[in-house]
Amino acid sequence: MLVxxxxxxxxxxxxxxxLAGRDPSDAAMSRAGLGLVSYALALALSVFDGTVVDAVGxxxxxxxxxxxxxxxxxxxxxxxxxxxxxDRVWRWTVLPLGVAELVAAAVVGxxxxxxxxxxxxxxxxxxxxxxxxxxxxxxxxxxxxxxxxATLLFGLGAVAVLVPFGWLPDGxxxxxxxxDLLVLGVVVAVTNALEAGEAxxxxxxxxxxxxxxxxxxFGGQVGLVSLAVDDGDRAALRALAFGVVAAAIAVVTLxxxxxxxxxxxxxxxxxDLRSSRAELRDATxxxxxxDEGASLAALDDDAFTRLVRDALRNYGDxxxxxxxxxxxxxxxxxxxxxxxxxxLDRATELKALLLESIERLRPREAEFGTSEEWRYFNALxxxxxxxxxxxxxxxxxxxxxxxxxxxFDWLRRYVPERTLYNWQNAAARVVARDLRARVD
Length: 440
Description:
The protein is an all-alpha fold. It is 74% helix and 0% strand.
């Protein structure tokens, strides 16, 4: 029984960490990962006894339903008018109140549990309705159908978790919920990879094999020790088994993030060395995500523009540009002048191409202006090339020249964040048309 529990925990824990770490900037990915991590912790606590353990396990088992409502909202198209307000309501109202409701139900129990199930699943149902409304405006694909079906099954399983009827063993209920969460997590990962023009299989296999080997090597040692101890010490060994396996999988799955943290400590006085190591590390992680079979000429305008938008967003990070399908642009080949070029070389040339396209948006009469004709250039050049972050609470202005400081002040004072986002989308379409001409 312990072996099965540790195995199920390992799969959920690994996939949750993988989703959260693959693209932290993607809300759907990070939230899906958080839901799986919460479910994995609930699985780990299910093999222990105790009032406090049961209460904590109840809260952790109910959290995925709350979190998945946020995942569905994040999966809505960016142009959906309900996405932004629904996300704010989920973030600042639904999630904190839902957690408080779960804690109250775990402490009080009894009649509070059916009420909690209704209140926790209501946001999930509302988010499902929003997704359905969005799907009715266009053709329904296989991925959307899987999301709807798995969410419905997940909702039924969540009811059984929050309101234990006793019809099925707790292990069966948790297993059914886990399968639905795993399916939903994989669908979110596939969606993220397709939207970014990246491959998923190779990177997913590499992470899974590494996590599996780590779990077997380190967890197996605890299992061997458990064979030689008395039954009275088994509880401590169970906790040790879950802790060792969780730590081993986390170290392997989040290796790049952990190395970056260690670099901050070890190379605190050498920022250039840290930056170079981070760039090489990002490039190494991005290589398995490259879709070698992608055809840029076969993409429609919206898909190509989305790739350009992603590349602009990663303009300052050469390592992340390595996974961009835009590396296959004929213009990149031309700039390499017949050289085969490694991934970093191609990313460097892509970065130069993007800068050329941005510079074409610059009016000729001055270094900086705020008129309408400067709109697209300012929206791309200063946030992405100059690296200014006008909406941060404590922005770092060190290293900025006078023109960039003027642009920072203007954006912060007179341009709302949503307006800048819209300008960037429109400017990205102009850049995409420029690059598209080099494909055709």
